[in-house]
Amino acid sequence: MPVWDLDREMHSKEWAAPAAAFAKRLAEALAVTTDLTTAERSARDALAGKQVTLR
């Protein structure tokens, strides 16, 4: 699950366009049905190793 540290000084309307752009990119990424390449698997594994649990 994506988590962002947002600037509290910005109005929520200022985040609408970036959030919509992210939603589009996320939908495109989730629609991919091909297997990951070796480089993509390595990148995924590196990110998975950096996950942090927020409490």
Please tell me about this protein's structure.
Helices cover 47% and strands 0% of the residues. The model has no long low-confidence stretch (mean pLDDT 85). 0% of the residues are buried. It has helices at residues 16-30, 38-48. It is mainly alpha-helical. The protein has two helices and no strands.
Could you name the key traits of this structure?
mainly alpha, 2 helices, flat
Question: What is this structure's SSE topology?
Answer:
Blueprint: H1 16-30, H2 38-48
Give a brief outline of the structure.
The protein is mostly helical. It is built from 2 helices and no strands.
Q: Characterize the quaternary organization of these chains.
A: single chain
Largest sheet: none
| Uncertain residue ranges | none
How many runs of DSSP E, i.e. beta strands? 0
